[in-house]
């Protein structure tokens, strides 16, 4: 599947930035701005999200499909090897891409998601009853005010045909969540590139115990805690997030600039 994407441009180290469920590539806009010009941030709308088309059926939202899409984009844009950063669902995709297509990846940043995603109190958010269209923007804002990060969800609400509607299909989001539920230790431990694990201290997805186990099973992993932030670290603390990613990128030695 061909992914639509945001591209900050430039000739710096390519960064593939992968959003979580319900998101869009533009969620990384503030990060791309802060990382420029040393880093070129390419942030796709993953399948079923944003401006990218949906899969033909729910079976198209498994892990293999997400990884294959991102691999195809990296090849099409000649990004390899890229620094791959991923939030939540995008974080699982990031380390699975590194494990399964190591030729495409220089390093991995995993934001607030674990190698095990099926043992959470609520691993899947039931959105089957959500409205998909709103009479105006304030109505959408009022609905998403109850979510942990309203602005994140509102990026996928656009004006269309006299109203405001979601860019994603609710059944697709359920399928994407279920497809991301599992035990991924084999992929996690198979990654040979440098890896950075970012955890929010107020996370509802990545416990301190699971983060510690991830480092124990893969000792080469660098773990960084973000105090006072929730699951969306890149939105809650973009300055520290960007500086942490920048420092990690500078530690990579496998990438060379064009002509370098």
Automatic annotation (TrEMBL):
GO terms for molecular function: catalytic activity. The lineage of its organism: Bacteria, Bacillati, Actinomycetota, Actinomycetes, Propionibacteriales. It comes from the Bacteria. It comes from Kribbella italica. Gene3D superfamilies: alpha/beta hydrolase. This is Pimeloyl-ACP methyl ester carboxylesterase. InterPro entries: AB_hydrolase_1, AB_hydrolase_fold, Carboxylesterase_BioH. Residues 15-241 form the AB hydrolase-1 domain. Transmembrane segments: none annotated.
